[in-house]
Design a protein that fits this description.
The complex is a heterodimer of chains A (112) and B (112).
Chain A (H helix, E strand, L loop, with lengths): L4 E3 L2 E4 L5 E6 L6 E7 L5 E8 L2 E5 L7 E4 L6 E5 L8 E8 L6 E2 L3 E5 L1
Parallel strand pairs in A: 2-11
Antiparallel strand pairs in A: 1-3, 3-8, 4-5, 4-9, 5-6, 7-8, 9-10, 9-11
Chain B lengths: L4 E3 L2 E5 L4 E6 L4 E9 L5 E8 L4 E4 L2 E6 L4 E6 L8 E9 L7 E2 L3 E6 L1
Parallel strand pairs in B: 2-11
Antiparallel strand pairs in B: 1-3, 3-8, 4-5, 4-9, 6-7, 7-8, 9-10, 9-11
The chains are: A mainly beta (112), B mainly beta (112).
């Protein structure tokens, strides 16, 4: 069965550094998402992406965050200048029209 | 405002018992979805119920939806140790396009 894959599984970075989290959504999917989950807390929506542009974003998704679909297969989340509070699991997801989300296994980001 | 709040926050039962988890939401919705998350992993879609449906079954899962009370329940019958996970409800409010929003989840532990 096709899967959403995310790399790396764990990323450690220093405060102020830029990080790029990578995702390969399922190939025929149309909608792409990033969520984050701070340890022990709820899964929070960051951004949705459709037709090569952002369709919705939350208050969390401020100017420090950006997303890109640089080619036909990758979907990336960039955090320009990481803060301690950015430490979390970041989940990528994708879906077809009118279908449920398929999630990757996440990237654990640790900002020190 | 938050969409999708589950109760209880944690539930511990013996194998073979039924587990019931509840979800409440605030605004009108198109559909309500339930997802499962094993520790440290991505979320897996379980079942989707549309706003014009009242009950839906999938294997040992039964979901109900009461739009007048803005609530849903997930029943897992004849639970197994492998059902141990966190369970989340998720909704897309009518005016929120693609923004699937998750509740805080119920942590279910099934003891063998």
């Amino acid at each position: 069965e096709p899967e959403v894959t995310q790399t790396p599984s764990h990323q450690v970075t220093q405060m102020g550094q830029e990080v790029i989290l990578r995702c390969v959504p399922i190939s025929n999917h149309l909608y792409f998402y990033w969520y984050r989950q701070i340890l022990g807390q709820k899964v929070e929506f960051l951004v949705s992406f459709y037709n090569n542009e952002i369709s919705e974003k939350s208050e969390i998704f401020d100017d420090q965050f950006s997303v890109e679909r640089p080619d036909g297969s990758n979907f990336t989340l960039k955090i320009r200048s990481t803060k301690l509070e950015d430490s979390a699991m970041y989940f990528c997801a994708s879906r077809l029209q009118n279908s449920p989300l398929h999630f990757g296994n996440g990237t654990r980001l640790t900002v020190t | 405002s938050q969409q999708g709040e589950e109760d209880p926050q944690a539930l511990s039962i013996q194998e073979g018992e039924n587990a019931t988890m509840n979800c409440s939401y605030k605004t009108s919705i198109n559909n309500l979805q339930w997802y499962r998350q094993n520790s440290g992993r991505g979320l897996v879609h379980l079942i989707l119920i549309r706003s014009n449906e009242r009950e839906k079954h999938s294997g040992r899962l039964r979901v109900t939806l009461d739009t007048s009370k803005k609530s849903s329940s997930l029943l897992i019958t004849a639970s197994r140790a492998a059902d141990t996970a966190s369970y989340f409800c998720a909704t897309v409010p009518n005016n929120a396009g693609n923004m699937l929003t998750f509740g805080g989840g119920t942590r279910l532990m099934v003891k063998p």
